[in-house]
Specification:
152 residues, mainly alpha, two-stranded antiparallel ribbon, 2 strands, 3% strand, globular
Length: 152
């Protein structure tokens, strides 16, 4: 078991960093999606796009948190300079954000219509959609970040 963990240490660290980043992203989404609609009336439905600013701001929080965890704990420095590495990370993250926002819209509009009661907490359709979008995009993120950005 120890050998298996050591062999897959980077994947395990990526999962932990991703989990922590997801907590930051989901937590900030909860805060933004609760308070932004009070200030901006169209936040809940802006021309058919649900919670656009909440999604963008929370995803940005998660991305920045993930970047620092990635360079400190998960990946070794690649052959790129820090500036280029950060730029590549941000480009990949921007593409991931667009994908995540798209998946969120599909999940929220067509798939997740009801709350899920977890006894200790009830997940709303927007939270379920956000979590599902994060999980789907994280698989792509690991592959691209490892191969392209950090030259793993």
């Amino acid at each position: 078991m120890r050998t298996l963990l050591l062999r897959h240490k980077q994947v395990l660290l990526f999962i932990i960093a991703g989990g922590l980043s997801a907590i930051v992203e989901i937590g900030s989404f909860k805060i933004f999606s609760t308070y932004l609609p009070q200030a901006i009336s169209q936040e809940q439905n802006f021309h058919g796009i649900h919670y656009p600013l909440s999604n963008i701001l929370s995803t940005s929080c998660g991305i920045l948190f993930n970047y620092f965890l990635s360079i400190w704990f998960v990946f070794e420095r690649g052959k790129h300079s820090k500036r280029k590495e950060f730029a590549y990370f941000m480009v990949v993250s921007l593409i991931s954000t667009v994908l995540s926002l798209s998946f969120f819209q599909v999940f929220y509009s067509f798939i997740f219509k009801d709350n899920i009661d977890l006894i200790f907490y009830t997940l709303s359709p927007e939270m379920i959609s956000k979590i599902a979008a994060i999980l789907l995009v994280s698989i792509l993120n690991y592959s691209v970040k490892k191969k392209v950005i950090f030259n793993g």
